[in-house]
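Standup notes, protein team

Yesterday: finished cleaning the Marinoscillum furvescens DSM 4134 set.
Today: LytTR family two component transcriptional regulator structure.
Blockers: none.

Input for LytTR family two component transcriptional regulator:
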Amino acid sequence: MNDRAGYQILVVDDEEAIGAMCSSLLNELGYAVVGIAASYDQAVRAIDEKQPDLVILDIDLGDSKNGIDLADHINETTKTPFLYLSSYADISTVSKAAKTIPQAYLIKPFTKEDLFTTIEIVRNKNKTDQTIQISSGTSTIKISANDVSLIKSDNNYIEIFENGKRHIVRSSLDAFLKEQEYDNFVRIHRSYAINLLKVDSFSRQHVIVGNHKCPISRSYKQELMQRFS
């Protein structure tokens, strides 16, 4: 089985025929389509419920809120990767869309090959990142590993610091790190792991990550120095 089968995509388009065609092409290419949303509100609910890996969204949703509004919502909340699929190619529309930092912009009409190439470029672009699923109350949320600055252990719990937020998860630091395939997490102490991309400075005894001064233990110092060299 190819690895595309586990890649979940939500299609957002107010034109039923276009949404169905896009979904059909995605299925033919081996991706997992988790739904088709025809409006801003439907898309917001679907993103929250399905937690897709990618959202393919049209700019014109035939509603008071369009695809660019949805992109703003995604950037403020789930930060799910998204790409635009639109018939608009004028400078004004593309400039507005570009400000939302999409992964790609695909112009209609498109071919199956166009769709495949665009999605695979997006997937490879995001392989340096990883989505981390953590339990928050009664729900599960996804966060980007690139946004995590450090993980601190506190007995049977860990604290995950992400863009000014703090998530408390019932897990050991060992178990958490073993579950991740993200190369930039490095253990520096029995109670601390850091994201190399978030390091501001370091000395022989400490690593500074934002407002946090994290101790370096002897047993982890050599590996840390090798990663920085």
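Follow-up from PR in the comments: The chain has a mean pLDDT of 90.
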